[in-house]
Structure formats: C-alpha cells, structure tokens
Design brief:
The protein has helices spanning about 15-30, 55-65, 90-100, 110-120; strands at about 30-35, 45-55, 70-75, 85-90. By secondary structure, it is of the alpha+beta class. It has a single domain, classed as Endonuclease I-creI (Roll), CATH 3.10.28.10. A hairpin with a 7-residue loop joins strand 1 and strand 2.
Length: about 120
C-alpha cells in the first residue's frame, strides 16, 4: 500500500505492530469510515475514522493507542438500549491511522485503500 508521501501535521502516534494488528481487528468488526461535512467555514467533506462500542475501557484504549481523537458518550433514551462510546478522528489523522493498520485489515481493506489513495491525489487542506 503506498503512503501518502505528503507532509501534514498529524497528531497520531506511531503504533507498534501488535497495537496496529489489534486495532485493525477491532476496526474491521466495530469501526466505520464516514465522509463527514467539514466544520466551520470550510467547504467539502472530510474522512472520519470511528469506532462505536458499549465498552468504555476499549474505546479509551483505542484513543491511547492512536494518541489523539475524541470520545463521545451516548446515553439512550430507551432504557432497553445500552449506553455507548464513540471514538473518532478526522482528516489526515484518520488517514495516518489507516496507513498503520492497513496490512492487517480484511473486511475494510478496499475501503481503506480507496481513502488513502484519495488523500494521495487530493490535498485535503
């Protein structure tokens, strides 16, 4: 898989191979890639890497492994539903995560490759 080869300010940390493999498995099962609208006055869309789960400890571990990103808590209105936490990171930070976990992805491999290649050819800033 080619790297973006571009220099952008990313806040993600370099994962160990074990961390990247673990995160790839978790992301394949519980994660998603979303084309989200940019905030503020910026036009266009931006990649969002996210994982949603009912286990807060795992979501906090994801944030620690990646080194940046946000966690959002969701309390359901229906008492039959479980509370959940969503970890998300955007833009080049999301691409940097994908580049690191790419060798271990199975289910979302093609989608990840598409996004990485899009960021190689299009400057998201």
């Amino acid at each position: 898989m080619p790297s973006t080869g571009k220099t952008f300010s990313v806040k993600t940390r370099r994962m160990t191979k074990t961390e990247a493999a673990w995160l790839a498995g978790l992301f394949d099962g519980e994660g998603s890639l979303i084309d989200s609208k940019r905030s503020g006055n910026q036009s266009g869309f931006c990649l969002r890497f996210q994982i949603c789960m009912c286990n807060e400890e795992i979501i906090r571990r994801v944030q620690t492994i990646i080194g940046t990103g946000n966690i959002t808590y969701w309390k359901p209105k229906n008492p039959k539903h479980s509370e959940s936490w969503r970890f998300h990171v955007h833009g080049m930070n999301a691409v940097h995560v994908l580049e690191q976990i790419f060798p271990w992805l199975i289910v979302k491999r093609e989608l990840a490759e598409m996004w990485i290649l899009q960021y190689i050819t299009v400057d998201p800033s």
